[in-house]
Amino acid sequence: MSDHLQSQHEAFKARLISDVLGKDSGDKVPIEKVVMIIWQFRDDPQVVKFMTRFVGKFAGSRHVFDGIEFYLPQLAHMIIHLEAEWDDNILERFSLVIAQQSLHFALQLNWILQGAIEDYQPELPDGSINPNHNPLFFSRCIKLLTNIERCVVYKKQRSPELQRLYEKGKITKQEMQIMEHADRRFNALQITGENSEGESFGGTLLYKRKVRRACYKAKGWKSRYFAIEERMLNCYSSENGGLVRSMPLEGAIIEEVKNNPKKYKNMFSVSNRTFEFQMRARSPEDMAKWMKILRDEAASSPVFGHMDSSVHTVSEEKSRVIAEMTNAQRSRYEFFRDERDFIRRLTDIAEELRFKEPAQRKAVAPKMLMHLKIPPCVYSPLCNSTDTWLRVNGTLYKDTRVFNTKERCPVIMYFLSERDGDTDIAEYLYRKFDPTDEIEPISENGEEKKQGEDKASDGGSEKSSEKG
């Protein structure tokens, strides 16, 4: 870059900082310029840290939260790609702070991470090599997804105590908000600072590809190093080699392969909704050890998994964890699980129709919608948190429309929905899933309302950004 262009670039960055941090900005934080600053200073973690903390202080303001939500795809891109080689997870902690504040935000980020995991996984579902595989981004997305899910359930531990102090007049509204934000930051720091949930287990096994690289090449058994890490079964070219393939263990089925055509000894398979690995151990004892550890890992997985097919998997450990949750934690867990599962079912319908003959699709689609099971509290997430809450309670399956294309099968689905007055998504989710630590909403100008004032009125109050 020439000296002239460099000076123009530095002047541009200086104007951005002045626009955001200038004296006249007040609490009107221009999020679009904040995102530009983070991108322009992406090589300087200290600047990024300062900007995320600055924005976090105003996240309770409606227009600031709307901006964070609008630029979520850009923020998610930077979280996945920029921080992969940083020593400090600055943007990740910022996203965890907001996820504790908003279930809608957490769901949106969850689906972005799910898509990124599919983009960067080592192999495609048919066993062929994924040309876009990136082991660093793949493993990072898995950890991010796990942390987001934990924040949804185990969030804001001191809010009830802070609420009681506020009601007794011992702290002000501003002090309560500051301490709540500090709690969220502390929770995010704890989660990102924790090590892996357990020690990894690994060893050498024989593995055969499911798909041939070419029609004239026989599929041979190759020695590969497998390791159980971060609730994933990872396959490496060697013990210190690169990642070749990987699969989630949540909901996985581990079975001994006894009736294989060539009578291979010590052969077993690991399969889930998308993948299937077939491997051979060196001895019956080695096979038994691998199968036991894999089954234990699949059965003792946390309440959430990397794959949506695992959310309803029943295990003794999962049941114990759920039983130990408080009522508020369990309600958030069940809502997050049901919403994620509901959207997965909708996408499954479109995917299944893709493999039907075009002439059959229009007849099959309404029947699939007719038998769709709808959880008690779900909504269409293709909206903003400030849009009106509409609970999905039925389908207009006869009005389903299917379009035929070469690659995909787009479907228009119609649903019956129920309003809750003029309540927006943010307020509804907060009121339903955080009843014990409810606080007064923040008005557009940032001023707090007096307790008991206009509680029965729907007209004059501004709705806060979603708190849960």
Question: In words, what does this structure look like?
Answer:
By secondary structure, the chain is α+β, with helices and mostly antiparallel strands. It has helices at residues 3-21, 31-40, 45-57, 62-70, 72-81, 90-101, 103-120, 135-153, 159-167, 173-193, 284-299, 316-323, 327-354, 358-370, 425-433, and strands spanning 201-208, 221-229, 232-236, 243-248, 253-256, 267-271, 276-280, 388-395, 401-402, 411-412, 415-424. It has 15 helices and eleven strands. The strands form three sheets. The protein has a seven-stranded antiparallel sheet, covered by helices on one side. Helix 3 (45-57) runs parallel beside helix 6 (90-101) and helix 6 (90-101) packs across helix 10.
Q: Which SSEs are present, and which pair or pack?
A:
Layout: H1 3-21, H2 31-40, H3 45-57, H4 62-70, H5 72-81, H6 90-101, H7 103-120, H8 135-153, H9 159-167, H10 173-193, E1 201-208, E2 221-229, E3 232-236, E4 243-248, E5 253-256, E6 267-271, E7 276-280, H11 284-299, H12 316-323, H13 327-354, H14 358-370, E8 388-395, E9 401-402, E10 411-412, E11 415-424, H15 425-433
Antiparallel strand pairs: 1-2, 1-7, 2-3, 3-4, 5-6, 6-7, 8-11, 9-10
